[in-house]
Amino acid sequence: MASALISTRRAPDGSVLVEVRGDVDIQSSTRLRDILVDTATRVMPAKVTVDLLHVTFIDSTGIGALAAGHNAAQRRGLGFAVRNATGMVAAQLRQTGLHDAVAGGNG
C-alpha cells in the first residue's frame, strides 16, 4: 500500500485544514497522529478539519490517529471535524463510532 500524503494549511478564518491522500495505515498513521496532535496543542486554531476525500484506505492505526487528534482538540476546547469520508473510510468511521464524534460534513 502507498503511504498517505498529508498537507496542512491555515484557512483565512484561522482554522487549519489537514488534507490526506492515499492509504492511512501503519506506515502513515504515526505521522498523521503527530500532525493532528501538534496542530491542536501548539498551533491551537479555533478548529481543525481533516479532509479525507482522497483517502482510499484506513486501518485501525489511522482511526486511532484521528481519535488522538480529536481528543487533543477536545481537551483544549477546539473544534475538530472530519469531512468528505466516503466508501470504506466512512464505513470504518461509523463502525468504530468515531463518525458521530467527528462528522464535519459530506460523509
Automatic annotation (TrEMBL):
Coiled coil: none annotated. It holds the Pfam family STAS_2. It comes from the Bacteria. Residues 5-107 form the STAS domain. InterPro entries: MlaB-like_STAS (IPR058548), STAS_dom (IPR002645), STAS_dom_sf (IPR036513). CDD domains: STAS_anti-anti-sigma_factors. SUPFAM superfamilies: SpoIIaa-like. GO terms for molecular function: anti-sigma factor antagonist activity. PANTHER family: ANTI-SIGMA FACTOR ANTAGONIST TM_1081-RELATED (PTHR33495:SF2), ANTI-SIGMA FACTOR ANTAGONIST TM_1081-RELATED-RELATED (PTHR33495). This is STAS domain-containing protein.
